[in-house]
Amino acid sequence: MSFKSPAAPNTPYFTPAQKTPAGAALSANPPTLFTPIKIRDVTFQNRIWVAPMCTYSADNGHLTDFHFSHLSSFAYRGASLTIIEATSVLPNGRISPEDSGLWTDSQIAPIKRLADFLHSQGQKLGIQLAHAGRKASMMAPWLVKERGKSVVASEDANGWPNDVMGASAIRWGEGFAMPREMTAQDIRDVVNAFRDSAKRAVAAGVDVIEIHAAHGYLLCSWLSPISNKRTDQYGGSFDNRIRLLLEIIKEIREVIPSGMPLLLRVSSTEWMEKSGEPESWDVESTIRLAKILPALGVDLLDVSSGGNNEQQAFSPYNDYQVDIAGQIRSALYENGIKDLLIGAVGMITEAEAAKSIVQNGKEGPRDPVEIESERGQKTKADVVLVARQFLREPEWVFRVAYRLGVEVQWPVQYLRGKFLRGSNI
Ligand SMILES: Cc1cc2nc3c(=O)[nH]c(=O)nc-3n(C[C@H](O)[C@H](O)[C@H](O)COP(=O)(O)O)c2cc1C
Fold it and tell me: What's a Gene Ontology MF term here (predicted)?
């Protein structure tokens, strides 16, 4: 008898075909969490994505075997999208000297290796394109002795403290470099760098691009009237403050395939409502921005928060950010905007929570009706993004499925390791 182990297609080496991608539901009528979602030409087999996580481990911007092992471990265990950490579009846009980058062609190859592998497993790769702005040139957090503090990476530590730039010459806070106010040339350079990095990401074979406009990094700081005090066409009014972001979105959308999903991560509020500042970037500002996004080709808003101010004030509880995602989703729906998907992120660690955040009503994917079994809770998002729980449990997708009683595909090599029925998982 001759019988060959079927190979994964389009892969430069033999690896067994995964006929059904890991993380796909095998049970009938699974909860929405384990139903596919199609965005443009890309279909995700479930609604659980790995959020971008900096690891401060790159070699002059190049991903290494660490990233390959780290990111692929989530992907082949069934996360339907794994997003590469904040990847800088310019050398001076790295948070730390060891950040990932995509400002030069030699950085394409390690990303392509990862994309090829994930594709061989039937999984999808995203990348978050970023510029750290006034929060650039910092030491990796574990090198800082005092917890919660920051230390500038000096030139001796491969930093660039004299080439840090931002919307205005306002330092983020103690332990951060003093930024210069970006010139018209700096602005053109940043816009071009986002466009060129997006092209490189396409060349590397990524499936999804996310623009990082959250956590006080460059694009986030331009949105806020507290950190953006410019007097040109990029400062002052709401329309002026969002201008740089919109220019970048347009440039990226023009150079990526029309079938490729484009995501945007924002800080939905900078948590400065109680600061006494006359105006800050808040949830209302995000809703106003969100309404403009579908026409620009943004498919999904990834709703994060904070990071733009030292004085931010908020009390995190499990759903603090997920509730904002729900608020934005409802506001869009009420305004008839149904073509911007919403991603919820932040402290999602439990199977039931993940399930109820994305659970749809009977009318289908954009039906926000209340769910009786969830005590009147509304659908809050279309996908969940999860960061720290994947560091603790790379097999979190399998655990969630098991806890919800959903049978899902495991990688063929791991089939003998599936959780046994009745085990206490
Ligand atoms: C180690 C680590 C690195 C992170 N790096 C990034 C990043 O590169 N880009 C980003 O937008 N958010 C980053 N975040 C934030 C996460 O993507 C996520 O929004 C946050 O951790 C909340 O989700 P969680 O409660 O599931 O961890 C990082 C978080 C952690 C823990």
Answer: NADPH dehydrogenase activity
